[in-house]
Amino acid sequence: MAGHDAAPLLSSSPPPSQANGAVRRRNQQLAGPTEISAAASNGPNGAASSSRLSADKKRRRKARSLFRRFARFSFKHTWVAPLILLVLFGAAYAVNPTDANPVSRFIFLSYEQPNPNAHLDPTLPAHYGKGLWDVAFVAFYTIVLSFTRELMMQELLIPLGRINGIKSKGKQQRFAEQMYTAIYFSCMGPTGVYVMSRSPVWYFNTAGMYETFPHRSHEAVFKFYYLFQAAYWAQQGVVMLLGFEKPRKDFKELVAHHIVTLALIGLSYRFHFTHMGIAVYITHDISDVFLALSKSLHYIDSPLVVPVYVTNIFVWIYLRHYINLRILYSILTEFRTVGPYELNWETQQYKCWISNIITFALLASLQALNLFWLYCLFRSMYKFVVYKIKKDDRSESSEEEENAQPEAEPLLEGNELANVNVKPAAGANGSL
Description:
2 domains; three-stranded antiparallel sheet; two-stranded antiparallel ribbon
């Protein structure tokens, strides 16, 4: 008996009942918080906590869903992003709508100063100088033009193309792009003529480009026009850089044109050759009206496309070649003889041999590009006269349209003319 009773005392393990109790206690200690939480959730307060957690999850899901929907909407309607930026600028300016608010430099012209001839006539309008804040002005109106372009194309011009029977999405996009260009330059062309009429350059007076040099300040309408045009070309550069428009056959020439144009705008403004710049602006703006209009009319098969196209060729030759060749000739002659001809950084006299070479090189490059496009215009006219122009009967699907396009575009592409299909047939008539 003694042997049997001593065995439990010498054993290192507790009796089964004690071991089970210890395990239960350890499990309760480890699972205590969970059981308490579970118990709490079974009570009135626990149910409320669970309900709050569920509501938070629903709100987060709803917020993510709204963000995704907004992202999809913004991607489809590309005018939304610039609109938001414009609203933010407007709100920031509304906080303190005075000149002391830095945001006003983005929205309004900077560097107001008295008219240089105010001592002769106090009623003369104020002038505006130049400075770094002008970059902010250009940046803001680049956003404005981005919003305007996308809104007009998506909400007005593409539906207008559909109304006029354009079924292919690719052609609707092309039509909208050209209509926007025609509308923009229809506004800016006459504006430029008005601004030029208030300057010594009227009517393309080349001597007025160099008289009273340097032209360091301008009237408000002159400066606004010049910088607003700079914003347009900056915005067009963004469109090209981001690939918003599908590249055409003359994409390389179009890129070169944008680079030369932006260089001319920036350098002419910085070094006070703005009187020459406004003449170059006008010669290209007015010709672009007829060019874009002829392309737009082609997309809707209008009977007016031929007379507008022929008018475009005459306007193109007169403005982009005759007038610009006169300007180039003046750079070789009057540039040196009219007004000062020296380099002086202190007095901002930049009309010298260096600027003479740079100005001539840039404008000659622009002239070479225009001659290339003139050749394309004449080539298109030749094909219209000699060959039969068959009606565009390509598939409605954008994929088939784009696949067919490389073999069916004799007319100038890019920023220059519309696309047509040609089929040799002597003596036949058609439509551009």
